Amino acid sequence: xxxxxxxxxxxxxxxxxxxxxxxxxxxxxxxxxxxxxxxxxxxxxxxxxxxxxxxxxxxxxxxxxxxxxxxxxxxxxxxxxxxxxxxxxxxxxxxxxxxxxxxxxxxxxxxxxxxxxxxxxxxxxxxxxxxxxxxxxxxxxxxxxxxxxxxxxxxxxxxxxxxxxxxxxxxxxxxxxxxxxxxxxxxxxxxxxxxxxxxxxxxxxxxxxxxxxxxxxxxxxxxxxxxxxxxxxxxxxxxxxxxx
Length: 244
Ligand code: PEP
Fold this sequence. Notes:
Number of helices: 10
Largest sheet: 8 strands, parallel, barrel
Structural class: alpha/beta
Bound molecules: phosphoenolpyruvate
């Protein structure tokens, strides 16, 4: 059976003192439950802090991006090997903010996913349409194109990834896809990964998930959990989502 996974994406937020409190509260408030996993993806400089705070707990940690390159003259980049040294279980790739502000193409996202897997890190591959694309009724085409690039690049390693459907219009806006809208896209994604021989790949939903809408979203047949931005910065809210 597919397990449940909730991952916090702190984005470019945090500070040593605030992180210490947040990580401590999350660790103290989370009970190890078979089939349910909780993780936080923190900014690179705080990976060591997350590792120190969480390594003796059942909460995992990861990064919000990874370089497609293994090493060398790529100023500002961080390799999968480096992330592995800090115990990262996950690396988000293809978040819409990376695609939008930093030009990550489908090909680059696929290469990043491959680089992560090469060092034993699970890539959380984000896909999602803009409002314009939804209005133009191209949601399915867009998410299948984004996911397709990764499936093609990874071959049978696709079994080892996580996919997050994050409609761009729902990220940080307070707008959430209805459970039915999200499920419809997840069903499409499920068929796609199943055709690649990986029907059990966890499919997360992300986009203004809060404690009061998480349960309805997570109850849908093909939604296996959530990728949580803003609400992951408050321990009570994040834990309430994780328990949903
Ligand atoms: C995200 O950044 O992945 C996200 C889903 O953000 P938010 O929950 O704030 O919409």
